[in-house]
Amino acid sequence: MKLSDLRKSGHTPSLVSSFLYFDVSFMIWVLLGALGVYLTADFNLTASQVGLIVAIPILAGSFFRIVIGILTDRFGPKKTGIGGMLVTMVPLAWGWLFGFTVTELYMIGILLGVAGASFAAALPLASRWYPPHLQGLAMGIAGAGNSGTLFATLFGPRIAESLGWNGVFGLALIPLSLVLITYIFLVKEPPNQPAPKTIKEYFSVFKEKDTWYFCLLYSVTFGGFVGLSSFLSYFFVTQYNVSGIRAGEFVTIVVAAGSFLRPVGGMISDKIGGVRLLQFLFIGVAICMFGVSLLPPIALVTVFLFVGMGFLGMGNGAIFQLVPQRFQKEIGMVTGIVGAAGGIGGFFLPNILGTLKDLTGTYASGFITFSAIALLALGLLYFVQAGWRKQWKVSGESVRI
After folding, report:
1. Among the listed ranges 155-164, 185-194, 311-320, 362-371, which one has the minimum average pLDDT value?
2. Cα separation, 94 vs 170, whole angstroms
3. What is the pTM of this model?
4. Does any domain span residue 3?
5. How far apart are CA 265 and CA 195, in angstroms?
């Protein structure tokens, strides 16, 4: 498999647009996390309160991903994506012009979940344009839009220093509007859009055990990635006494690994199988999170987080090399469900880290817990892969798992 194969197949403008849509949406989705230090200063928040506020968009995104998944399967990813971006403008305008109370932060966070739900439209747009042997790479490229976190963590604190956190929300309307225009003019609906089903038929995928297995695994990989992305700025400031801008730089470094290695995870999975790759990645995540729990000097903890986030990002790519092979016809709905599970994992992780910090007085307990969760995911993977067939056949092609 070569990159040239990708250019000869599918529709490149749609693939690029799916990446841009996911990228800007992901940036907006994690804004509260990137600005957690400034929210703390304005509202005098505790660690557990910060954990809850930055996790609310992630949890809301889990619910909206299922909704967006259904809409994608019924109306297509182009129409659904356009609607999602229009709705996302609402919490940005709210945060820019108002946002004076903690209650408003909760409401803004809920609406920001629509941005996180972009996953359930962007990935099916990429998937439906490409054949099975290119699924890992195509889904990885679209999924690399989680690199939007980099823009939130790198530029969010800098802008907040000058304009306040409200100003960050206002400026975010600009890139969102540009991507919306691009999406409208460049994207084409995939030629194999499935026929609409009843709501009952869409939810029938919940009867499949594999749906739940993918959900549990993705709640660790994606949940770990987005949960850490949302909480690490606060972690660096409170644990290592660095400024908000400096913390944003450290978070940007570690998030870059998870973002840009996601396509690599998909590409490797196309060659050796997603299950095989995940086995190595979960072990790596467990080791790295244990290293973070030791709370070493900031340079070393950054290395542990960089490598660990890279493993989580590759894990995201590996899982979504597997999902289209198993659920090609239901990819929109299943993407929404599995993505929702990832969001739920991302909701719990900041709460675990913040709450255990308040209870024990140290972040070590939270990172040890995450290390143990990665090992449990490894055990689950060994259990479920024994029951999976060595190959799934999709459209007459054999694809390794």
Report:
1. 185-194
2. 9
3. 0.78
4. no
5. 31
